[in-house]
Amino acid sequence: MKQRFFFFLFIIFSLGLKAEFINIGVYHGKNIKSFEFSIRAGQYSLFSEKGKLLELAGGTKVTVTHASNGIKLQKDGQNIGSFQRLNFVGTGWYNHFLVKPSGGLTAHRYDDNLKVMAQHSGLQLINNIDLDNYVAGVVEAEVGRKPPVEYFKLQAIICRTYALSNTHKHLLEGFNLCDQVHCQAYHGKTFHTPIVEAALQTRGAVIVDSEIGLITAAFHSSCGGQTVNSEDVWSKSLYYLRSVEDTFCINRKNAYWEKTIPKQQWHGFIAKKVKREHLDSISLPFSPLIREKDYFGSKTGLSLEDLRNHFKLRSTFFEVREHGDSVLLCGRGYGHGVGLCQIGAMEMAKRGYTYAQILHYYYQGVHIIDLSALDFFKSD
Ligand SMILES: [Zn+2]
Ligand SMILES: [Zn+2]
Q: What's the 158 CA to ligand 1 centre distance in angstroms?
C-alpha cells in the first residue's frame, strides 16, 4: 500500500504543480466607503461586469468610491464610470498593489489581484491571491518576525492546512476566508524574506490524517508542560489531537500565571454548577499533578474549561488554594492547550528539530503531503 502511495506521489509530481488561488475578504467588517488603488509592482488589467475597461501601467493610481448606484471609478481626477464590480488582474510577472482606504484605516499592500463588489452601505474588497503568497502574509500576522526560520515553515504548513479546510467559511459573502482572527489574521503582503522563503520552501505542503483528509491544525500559545485531548475542550475526539508531555515550553514565555478571585465569586459559581450532593467532594486545595478535565473529578460535572471561560483564565491547567477572603489560582500555560504548543515548537526549532519532527510531535500519526496529491485522492 505504502509503495502504491509513493508511486502515485511520483506520478503527480512529474505532472508538475499548479498554482492555487484563494479569495480573501480584506478589511472585513470595516465598511469601506472609498479607497485609492496604486500599483507598486507589475501591471494590471481592469475589468468591470461590462468587460475590459483599462490597462494600468506601473505607478498608476485610481480612486474607487461607493455610490448609490454601485461603484464610482476615477483616474487622474476624471470620472471613468459607475459599475457593480471591478476586477484588477495582475498581468506582469510579479504584481502587487497598495490599498489606501479613506476614514483613517491603515493602508495595506497585497500581492496578485483585487476584486471590488458594491454592497448596501460600502465596498467589499477581495484579494484574489496565490495560496502561498497568502500563507506568507498570515504567518507574519500570526507570529511576527522573531521566531526561527524552521518555525516559519511549520506555521506556514499549519496556516495552509487551516485555509484549505475552511474555504467554505464566507462563501455566501463571495469569498473563502476573511482577514480577521475569525478566520486567520492577515494584514497583506509580508516583506520579511525568511517568511516568504519558508512559505515557498513548503509550497503546497499540508497535513492530513490517516484517511488523507486535512487535519484540524489546532494550536495555542503555551501548553504549560502537557497538551490537551481535543474532546476535553471541544466535544470532538480526534486521534491526532492527543495529550502529549511537553518539556520544551517549561520556563519559557507564558509558562506560569496567577490569579486571585474573591472566595464568594469562586464558590458561588461552583455552587450554581455542581449538584448539591456532590459539593462535599469539593474541598480545597485543588492540586492536579497532570492535566485533568474536570474540577474534582467527573462526578462534579464541572469542567475546567467551564471555569476557564467563566473566570477568563489563561488555561485549564491550574491549582487552587484558599488565601484569606480569596482563592489563589496558580496556573501553567496560555490558551486552550490543544494541538501544537507554539512556545514549545519555537524552542524545538531553536534546538535544531526539523519542522516535520515538530509537527509529528504535537500532531501524532499525521502525514505531510503535497496539495496536488490531496486533489488526486479526492477525485479517486
Ligand atoms: Zn472569517
Ligand atoms: Zn508546551
A: 17
Mean pLDDT of 55-79: 93
Give the number of the ligand closest to the Cα of residue 183. Answer: 1
Decide if pLDDT at 1 tops 70: no
d(CA 17, CA 37): 31
Distance 164 CA to ligand 2 centre (A): 26
Residue 249 CA, ligand 2 centroid: distance in Å? 4
For the entire predicted model, the pTM comes to 0.87
CA-angle at 319, arms to 313 and 324, nearest 5°: 90
Give yes or no for a contact between 131 and 22, defined as CB atoms under 8 angstroms apart.
yes
Is residue 147 domain-resident? no
Whether 41 is covered by a domain: the verdict is yes
* pLDDT averaged over every residue in the chain: 92
Indicate if the pLDDT at residue 9 is higher than 60. Answer: no
Is 99 inside any structural domain? yes
The answer as to whether 163 is a domain residue is no
CA of 100 to the centre of ligand 1 (A): 22
**What's the domain range around 271?**
256-332
Q: How far is the CA of 169 from the centre of ligand 1 (A)?
A: 6
In the chain, the number of structural domains is 2
Question: Which candidate, 210, 221, 216, places its Cα nearest to that of 246?
Answer: 221
Q: Decide: 151 and 136 in contact? Cβ < 8 Å.
A: no
Q: Which ligand has the nearest atom to the CA of 23? A: 1
pLDDT at 280: 81
For residue 11, what pLDDT band results from cuts at 50, 70 and 90?
very low
Q: Which of 113, 130, 147 is the last residue of a domain?
A: 130
- Taking the CA of 315 as reference, the closest ligand is 2
